[in-house]
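Lab notebook, design round three. We kept the backbone fixed and only want residue identities now. Task for the bench partner: fill in a sequence for the structure below.
Input C-alpha cells:
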C-alpha cells in the first residue's frame, strides 16, 4: 500500500473527527434559547469564562434575601476580541445590567443581547429595541 495514501487517509479521518466534535459542541440559538422569554437582570460579576465556542459571564443577582447566579452566554472569545473586548475589560465585582433571552430549560441561564456597566456604558451587543 502507498504510504502517502495511508497518511492522507489518516489525516482526513482525524480532520473529520475534529469537525464532528466541533459541530456537536455548537448549537443554534433556537435550540437552546427562547425568544419569547426575554430577561433583564442587574448584579455583580462573579466569574468570567473566556472560552470558545462561547464565553460565559456569571452574574450574582440579589433579591428576596438570597443570591442567584445567572450563567450568561456570550459570543466566542475570539469574536469578543475582534470586537475590541479584552479579558480585563470586565472584572470580578463589576456591577452590570444584562438583557437577553432565557434558556429553554433553565431559569438562571441566558444568552446576552446587551451588557452595560452600572454607569450606562454599553460593553456588549445591541438591545432588543435597537
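Proposed sequence:
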Amino acid at each position: 500500500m502507498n504510504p502517502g495514501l495511508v497518511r492522507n487517509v489518516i489525516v482526513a479521518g482525524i480532520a473529520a473527527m475534529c469537525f464532528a466534535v466541533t459541530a456537536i459542541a455548537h448549537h443554534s440559538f433556537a435550540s437552546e434559547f427562547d425568544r419569547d422569554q426575554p430577561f433583564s437582570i442587574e448584579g455583580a460579576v462573579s466569574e468570567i469564562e473566556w472560552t470558545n465556542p462561547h464565553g460565559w459571564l456569571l452574574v450574582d443577582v440579589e433579591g428576596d434575601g438570597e443570591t442567584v447566579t445567572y450563567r450568561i452566554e456570550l459570543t466566542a472569545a475570539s469574536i469578543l476580541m475582534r470586537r475590541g473586548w479584552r479579558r480585563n475589560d470586565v472584572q470580578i465585582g463589576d456591577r452590570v445590567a444584562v438583557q437577553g433571552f432565557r434558556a429553554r430549560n433553565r431559569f438562571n441561564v441566558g444568552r446576552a443581547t446587551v451588557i452595560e456597566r452600572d454607569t450606562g456604558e454599553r460593553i456588549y451587543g445591541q438591545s432588543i429595541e435597537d
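Keep this in mind before ordering anything: The longest strand covers residues 33-49.
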